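Example (one chain per record):
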Amino acid sequence: MQPDFNPLCLKYQLCFPLYACSREIIKQYRPHLEELDLTYTQYITMMVVWERQEISVRDLGKELYLDSGTLTPVLKSLEQKGFISRSRSEQDERLLIVKVTPSGMELRKRAESVPLKMAGCMNLTPEEAGELYRLLYKVLGKEDTDE
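Predicted structure:
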C-alpha cells in the first residue's frame, strides 16, 4: 500500500469503474433501443421474458437483480406497450405471472440486431471480453453462468 493511500479516494474504488462502464455501455445502447421504444431496463426484462415465455415477477426480479419497486413500473410500461401481459397464477394467487404477447415476440425479431450492433462497442478482444464476463459473474456470486 502506498504511504499516501486514501481509502476514500475515487481512484482506489473498484465500484467506480464498474459504475462508469455500466453507464457508458447503457448510453451506447440508447440509440438502438430508442428504435424499439425500450429503455435498457425494459430491454433486459424483455430478454428474460423472450427466453422464458412465462415467468413470475419474483423470479424475474431475481434474474435481473431488481427489486419490485424498480420492476413494477417497468412491467406496467411494457404491458401498456402490449409486449407482455401480467396475471395471477392459477396455482398460487400470490404469484404474478408475466407472459410475452404476440406483439412482444414481434419486438424480439426487431431486437435481434441489437447485440450485433453492440458487439464492437467495447475495446476488448474476445478473450478479454470472456474473462471480464466471467469475473463480473463471479462478483455477482454466479460462477456457473449457465444457470
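Caption: The chain has a mean pLDDT of 92.
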